[in-house]
Description:
Helix content: under 10%
Strand content: 15-25%
Largest sheet: 7 strands, parallel
Distance between the termini: 66 Å
Mean pLDDT: 92
Low-confidence stretches: none
Number of strands: 11
Order of helices and strands: EEEEEEEEEEEH
Number of helices: 1
Shape: elongated
Radius of gyration: 17 Å
Amino acid sequence: xxxxxxxxxxxxxxxxxxxxxxxxxxxxxxxxxxxxxxxxxxxxxxxxxxxxxxxxxxxxxxxxxxxxxxxxxxxxxxxxxxxxxxxxxxxxxxxxxxxxxxxxxxxxxxxxxxxxxxxxxxxxxxxxxxxxxxxxxxxxxxxxxxxxxxxxxxxxxxxxxxxxxxxxxxxxxxxxxxxxxxxxxxxxxxx
Length: 191
C-alpha cells in the first residue's frame, strides 16, 4: 500500500481539480488560491494550518476530512456537509464566505469566527457554537435547534430567526435590532 500524498507548505493556484491522488492525503501549511474544485472529494484528507482564498468548494465531499486550523477567505462553500468531517481537533474560521445551505449539525465549533458570511439556509442543529462570533452575517433561514450558543455573539448578525426556548442562549449577545428574530414564534408586531 502506498503512503498517502503529503504536501508541506505548498501553494496551489487556479486548480480545476483537487491535487490529492490518494485518499488520506495530508496538507500541512498549504495555501489554495482561486481553485475551482466544486464537488471535489476531500474524504479522509487532513488539512492542517491551511488557508483557502477565493476558492469554490461548493458541494465538496468532506467525509472524515480533518480541518485543523483552516481558514476560508472569500470562498464559496455552498451545500458542504461539514457534519461529515472528522471532529477531532476541528478548528475552522470563515471570512466573507458563501456558506448557503452548508450543514454544521452536531459539530463542536466553540469560538468559531464567521465574519461577513452568507449563511442563508445553513444548518446548526445540535452544534456547539459557544463563544462563536457571527459578525455581519446573513442568517436568513438558518436553522438553530438544540444548539449550544452560550456567549455567542449575534450583535451584528441579521435576518436570523432563533427560538431561545429551543436553544441554549445563556449570555449570548444580540442587538435590539435582533429582537424580532428572537420573538418571531410569538407572532408579535414589533415597531
